Amino acid sequence: MKQEKEIEFAKLRFAYSTVKKFLEKEAREDIDSLKVKIAEDLSFYGDDNYDLLIRFVEKFELDYSNFKYDEHFHSEAEVANPAFILINLLKLSVWIPLKTIELLSFNNIKINKPSFSSPERKVTDMTFKDLLTWYIEGEYANSKEIKYKIKTA
Fold first, then answer.
1. What would the pLDDT profile of 21-66 be if each residue is shown by its tens digit?
2. Are the beta carbons of 135 and 127 closer than 8 angstroms?
3. Distance (Å, rounded) from C-alpha 23 to C-alpha 129?
4. What are the CA-CA distances from residue 22 to residues 17, 43, 50, 131 (Å)?
5. 139, 62 in Cβ contact below 8 A?
C-alpha cells in the first residue's frame, strides 16, 4: 500500500524543476517524462550511472544509506564483460545486413535478427520519478511506495 504524503505545490514544482535540470544537464538531452529510465533511456550504464548517482547525492546532500545499487543497475564489470562484447560484435555483423534489408524494403520484409547478449542478473533501473522522490525525501525511498498529494489550505 502506498504511503500518502502531503506536499506544497511550490515545493513539488521546485523539486521537479531541480531534478529535471540536473538530469538534462547530465544526459545532454531533454527529459519529457517521469518514466524516463537512467540506464535504458538515457544510456547510463556501469560506471556512468554510478558516477551520475554520486554527483546527484553529493550535489543535493542526500542520504544514500538505504539505497542498494545492485538492485537497480549492473556493475561496470557486468556491462563490459569481454565475452559479451565479442559475442555482440559477431551478432552485430549479422544484424546490420538484416536490418539493412528491412529498411530497404521500407519494413515490408520482417527478418528475425539475433538479439544481443546482456548480463543475466535482472535489475530494475531507476527513473526520473525515483530520483525526484529521493530528492524530496532527502533519503532514498522507493517511488512506488509513496504518493504525493498537493497540500490544500
1. 999 999 999 999 999 999 999 989 989 999 999 999 999 999 999 9
2. no
3. 11
4. 9, 16, 15, 10
5. yes
CA atoms within 13 A on the CB side of 88: 11
Cell triple for 32: 519529457
Strand 3-7 relative to strand 146-150, pairing: parallel
Q: Output the nine-digit C-alpha cell for 79.
A: 556491462
Note the pLDDT tens digit of each residue in 2-24: 899 999 999 999 999 999 999 99
The counts of H helices and E strands in the chain are 6, 2
**C-alpha–C-alpha distance, residues 141 and 63, integer Å:** 10
Q: Where are the domains of the chain?
A: 3-74+127-150, 82-118
